[in-house]
Amino acid sequence: MCGIIGVENNKDAAVLVAAGLITLQHRGEESAGITVSGLDKMKTVRSMGLVARIFNEDALSKMEGTCAIGHVRYTTSAKSTLINAQPFQIDCMHGRISVAHNGNITNFLKIKDMLAKKGAIFDHTSDTEILLHLIAMAKGNLSSIVANAIKQLDGAFSLVILKDKTLIGARDKDGFRPLVLGKIGKSYIIASESAAVEVIGGEYIRDIEPGEVIEIENGKIKRSFKYTKVSKQHTCIFEQVYFSRSDSIMFDKSVKEARIKMGALLAEQMKDIVKTADIVMPVPDSGFYAAQGFSRESHILFETGFVRNHYVGRSFIKPSQNLRELTAQLKLFPIKEVVKGKEIVLIDDSIVRGTTSKRIIGALKKAGAKKIHFALSCPPIIAPCYYGIDTPMKEHLIAAQKSIEEIRKYLGVDSLTFLNLKNLVSACSPSQNNKNLFCCACFTDKYPTKISKISFKKKIKERINK
Q: Between the chain's N and C termini, which has fewer beta carbons within 10 Å?
């Protein structure tokens, strides 16, 4: 749950990276950082907080160079402090190198123990640091060093790496997290989402493929190759459900288009339930496009029934339950004139813990809603994510602990419907004949790679204790 971007061969590299990070701010609000590389120097600035606060005009004026990478962070397993803010910069026998990472390395503890036995000293608790040690120990040219390092990693990793005027992008063989290639003038861009490329004036070219390492220097692609054999893609389907920006392109269509299709298919599932409903209403902003699709398919009036406070962050990605609950209280307030006396179809993207949904539904009832049909544009989340989305362990997932009917009673709604997995995959796929592209483990409890759940729980426990 982070965002990364790199720009090379551009005198305004740091400014463009900062603008790209603002576009990717939804992927992480805890910290941000930029490394810029110029003639014989590399500078990294990292801080806790939002991009626009950290990288103001004065800060950017001091970041000279023609190549830069940047990172916005949300903690999934490591301690949320400045020490873990990225990019990470090192000095080694290969020179100065900086790395920014989105994902979660599932064999982190195993490799960390191996490196510690070889004398490695760790300054961070983030899994990204092991990659720096692996790079520092390897021999060869930069892209080969990166390839040899990431061959040892399991799990999810999309990377941007900077050395002097060389920008490298790399994506794990399953393609869990997105990574795209773009261009602005004579400069190449690598970013987590196509929106970050287009907002800064660039053109989206293509996705970095699963298992691909790409090396770029002076406006030219020097090398592009697969670091290992790729058998099957497993891109996280939750990116389209919730996490990616609606204007980003995934699998040849916008995320918005996929979400509208989710809503339309949800309406088909519920056609016998909502015959007397008065309005379709989204939970802002996550349910907006699915509610549009539902309204179009069902011909039930679309209404905006909440006022959203845009100065409050996304409640799902707050690092503690207390902050999530406070954020939920501040974020949404129902418009009584819209909901009073109405039978409502309420659309959201997902239920994780259930506490936020319960509070929202309680607010609608207090405002006078007559009936509430709650509909979600994905299946029940029954298993944690080990690949970089901060879904908690099973004991904290409401759908792993309760039946759908028990959840309905807990929420206090008249009906509860989840989009089934077949329909979700159909909405997200580029074609009817190409549906085997996704990791759906949070809905199925079937993971595409080997997972050391004990190690992962140990890692989470270490984060909480620290």
A: C
